Amino acid sequence: GIQVEQSPPDLILQEGANSTLRCNFSDSVNNLQWFHQNPWGQLINLFYIPSGTKQNGRLSATTVATERYSLLYISSSQTTDSGVYFCAAMEYGNKLVFGAGTILRVKS
Amino acid sequence: SQTIHQWPATLVQPVGSPLSLECTVEGTSNPNLYWYRQAAGRGLQLLFYSVGIGQISSEVPQNLSASRPQDRQFILSSKKLLLSDSGFYLCAWSRQGGQPQHFGDGTRLSIL
């Protein structure tokens, strides 16, 4: 099956800094999602992005399907951005394969 | 709008006891339903998915089973829990045809 790799595994930012998280996937995918898992364990949908670029406030995402990667940009980071960010690639049968995540800690 | 409910939020069970976790979806019909497990706070693994009533696909061999007795109800069960069944269990739903998945708030299961 498909393999999903995320980098970096851990990231510490000062409040107000920008960051880029990367997701590589090993094969063609039907779709790709980015999630934020908050300290209470809730998985929040950030983006559903098979290709192209989307923006939502301080967050944006770009997927280049032909090169098998996706990027999540966080600008002007806030302490509430802390948590784990997952990307997940959708293979046949609507099945999501998750990466190991990036643990983000934003310091005030 | 659509909502997904999971319960209980937290569960502590002794080894060898049975398990039943329930997930229901409101505001849609004929959803795809999924059970995932997250161990050690990193990465989710798909356990089961269902595309319709009574249709269950298992992704990994394990001590657990799933059932879908109604269109918007998905149940995760075990007859005898093992220590290795501890973890964070999340239910998700999506529309048919490659649509995004939406997750419930999860159940933290501890086996003693």
Q: What keywords describe this structure?
A:
heterodimer, A: 108 residues, mainly beta, six-stranded mixed beta sheet, five-stranded antiparallel beta sheet, 0% helix, B: 112 residues, seven-stranded mixed beta sheet, four-stranded antiparallel beta sheet, 11 strands
Return Rg of chain A in Å: 13 Å
Straight-line N-to-C gap of chain B:
39 Å
Overall 3D geometry of chain A?
globular
Quaternary form: heterodimer
The N- and C-terminal alpha carbons of chain A lie at a distance of: 41 Å
Helix/strand order of chain B, N-terminal first: EEEEEEEEEEE
Write the layout of secondary structure elements.
The complex is a heterodimer of chains A (108) and B (112).
Chain A: E1 4-7, E2 10-14, E3 19-25, E4 31-37, E5 43-48, E6 52-56, E7 59-64, E8 69-74, E9 83-91, E10 95-98, E11 102-107
Parallel strand pairs in A: 2-11
Antiparallel strand pairs in A: 1-3, 3-8, 4-5, 4-9, 6-7, 7-8, 9-10, 9-11
Chain B: E1 3-7, E2 10-13, E3 19-26, E4 32-38, E5 44-52, E6 55-58, E7 65-70, E8 73-78, E9 87-94, E10 102-103, E11 107-111
Parallel strand pairs in B: 2-11
Antiparallel strand pairs in B: 1-3, 3-8, 4-5, 4-9, 5-6, 7-8, 9-10, 9-11
